[in-house]
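ok so heres the complex, two chains, lmk if somethin looks off
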Amino acid sequence: MSELTRAVEALLFIASEPLSVRDLAELCDAPPERIERALDALGDRYCEPRSGIVLERVAGGHGFRAAADVAEVCARLVDRPPSRGLSQAALETLAIVAYLGPVSRPEIARIRGVASDSAVGGLIDRGLIEEAGRADSPGQPVTYATTISFRRTFGLEGDESLPALAEFELNEADHQALRARLHLVADQRAGQA
Amino acid sequence: MILEDLELDLDVFQGPFDLLLALILREEVELAEVPIAEIIAAYVERAYDRGDLDLESASEFLVLIAALLEIKVRLLFPGELDEDDELSPEQAEAELMARLIEFRRFQGAARWLRERAEREPRIFRDTLAPLAPRPQPPVVEFSEDPWRLAACIERLLEPPPPIDVSSVRRPLVPVGRFLDHFRTILRERRAFQFDEAVAGLDRLSQAAAFLALLEMVKRGEVMSEQQEVFAPIRVVSAGAAAAERAIA
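and the predicted structre for the whole thing:
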């Protein structure tokens, strides 16, 4: 292994966040093309199922993670893995922040129809979202965006690799079912009144 | 501050605020003629004078004023505010559907995230120490010379000189010394004045001498006489005292 490859390997090992080719080139004082070659060499070496450590392209950079088949064991070491045991409310809130971020709490609450303060707080604690300045709307509420930890946790290279929101569009049958339920609830209310 | 205490002095009304409210509600005072801004000014002035503004009364005042303003606006601009705020049932349904559909999309996205996290659990290095930020943050400039600070802490860290305890003596006055002293005196004389025997000694030694005297009295070696409290004490050897009594 060349000295450069070994340097890149060591940098990725000690880094707590993914490093981009540019980061690595600056740190190693080497041209990006050589960094790419070093990453290719490391990618061959650190891949599933060959190694317990896997090099992956994630969150706009490169980083090591545990191989999927040993992730369960590794999860025991971590106090609270960021993706473990997320409630439905937290996941919905996370999805809204991921697609619409930076987005404010009132905006999240408007979409979910309920206050989402505790879900937002929980996601901040897990390091999946963070404050991202203030909105220009009345009251200038704090806005939230997803973090590098979010992209790593869900293996996203950048926000582009989230599936298009249109993919989750309801089909006609779903629309009908939704409308039917709406009417049912409305009729029940009317009956009570 | 209590709202009932608020006295008003307006062109159209003079008296307590709650009376004005009652009159407005009974339509005995024309609300359109009442300058709301002056009421607010009076309230603020009063709160300021008193130096206290309790939230409960302030919010009550705010609600009342807001209601008055709304009624007044409707009086001043009749018809203009009567646009239909209420949605028709069809509009309400359409709005609700639109919201639900939007929400359902995010529920779908949430499902996708959950499945992805469960299918491919990702564990990676998660150190508490974040990477050094790049680019470098601007250097904070100090107006003070850091070397001065270093010199100060250096002085503080220097251990103080050890305290010299060699000059501190434990005062020790043995009572026995005075026993010997008094006995020596009494071998030469029959009696002596205690004050004279201890004159010039320090307090502690005088106290020890007194204890020695008490000890000798207890043992029957001497008799002591004192005419009155704080009077000089005369010490007489027991033998001499017996002789004196015999003569008497």
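quick notes: The longest strand of chain B covers residues 222-226. thats all i got rn
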